Amino acid sequence: MTSIPETVQVAVRIRPLSHSEHRLGCQSVTEQVDRGEPQICVRSSELFTFTHVFDAGSSQREVYETSVKSIVDKLLEGFNVTILAYGQTGSGKTFTMGTSFEGKYDDGIGIIPRTLNDLFDQIGEQSSEFRCAVTCSFVELYQENVYDLLSYRNRFEKMVGIREDASGVIIPGLTEVPVNSADETLRWLIQGASARAVASTSMNKESNRSHTIFTLTVRKIRNNQLVTISKMHLVDLAGSERSKKTRAVGDRLRESIHINKGLLALGNVIAALGSIKNTKGYISYRDSKLTRLLQNSLGGNSITLMIACVSPADYNLEETLSTLRYADRALKIRNKPMINNGELTARDEIERLKAENHELRTTLEQFQTAPVIVSKNERSVQKLQEQSENTLDLIFRFLPIESAGDFKQKTNEALHRYRKESALWNASDNKN
Ligand SMILES: Nc1ncnc2c1ncn2[C@@H]1O[C@H](COP(=O)(O)OP(=O)(O)OP(=O)(O)O)[C@@H](O)[C@H]1O
């Protein structure tokens, strides 16, 4: 087992200058001091040291192998893990996380598809020791509302609430899909991401206007016993932005206010957790849904990696410095990672009971469907009998006695045939 980081890990990734920045003659103001060293220098004056620094030439593979791969191993050991991309709008968060994966495998794929490939490969290798049951869920936080992106319902009905129980924050009714391979999970990612709120802004052609959390839950089972249950949250935050600079108005401005509010609350939590004085004091997780959902990832029992994405361009200098200061505070947060063994938490107990309830209902329905068909026919036989008896009463009044007896016998024979045939229909219905 590799060592467990005690503080939040922070990787900084500098994206390359974009075409439009080149065209505008922007200069790069950020540089990695030495390639391979985790230090970044801004305007040749301010120096920051992080867990990892990736310059504009770093590949997606390098970012994954250096900073994420070992965290995926921890997930399978039973730790909760979180990977969180933070940064100004257009700084490369979605590109780095791979949240907008479209199904094409190439060198450009981001963290989520790489993680899934690794995870399912490792599960395959361990299959003689354990059985792993994996589920995924995908939520979006848009203007302080939480949406279940994997639900088939319409946008309004996708909205879900959050609440807390003894085991932490829960989202009752959230769609959790059982998945058996990387490809299957990626299909859910693609489907969920297509429902995400995206819009074009002056700073990013396809800007995400919401925060998203893609979660994998891994249950390791041996001899029908739950050995560990661990969660991986892959978080793609909406970009922080200054509305004056983005010239946002109307819907974009409203989104921007909510995005910044959530990020401000997150910043306050990070600052409070990172400050030694406040570690035992009050942490304002309840100020926003974003901080409530990330409560366990910051200051909880999770192994957490924040990837701070920055633009190298001089016209983004202020935002870059602000991101680096934010990230620097996150570096001081102490978490208490621990293995989540198979002891049932209250939430798991609820999940188990829900599953059991579902199973019982299905069984009950199966039992109910057979008698319903029989009783339907049975009822119609009874009805027919009643009707025929009423008719017989009428007939008896007008027929001579001997003809009436003959008629009664014929009617009874017909009823008998009907009963026999309906029993045969029931048998073939039940078989089908
Ligand atoms: N390291 C990189 N290498 C090459 N291109 C990159 C890199 N990082 C980002 N880009 C490109 O920059 C643009 C903006 O990136 P992206 O959409 O990931 O930003 P973002 O931080 O998620 O923005 P927003 O917060 O507005 O959603 C995209 O066209 C993306 O392909």
From TrEMBL:
InterPro entries attached to this UniProt entry: Kinesin-like_fam, Kinesin_motor_CS, Kinesin_motor_dom, Kinesin_motor_dom_sf, P-loop_NTPase
One Gene Ontology MF term: cytoskeletal motor activity
Coarse class of the protein's main subcellular location: cytoplasm
Subcellular location, record wording: Cytoplasm, Cytoskeleton
Biological process annotations from GO: cytoskeleton organization
GO CC terms: microtubule
Coiled coil: 343-370
Name recorded for this polypeptide: Kinesin-like protein
The species this protein was found in: Culex pipiens pipiens (Northern house mosquito)
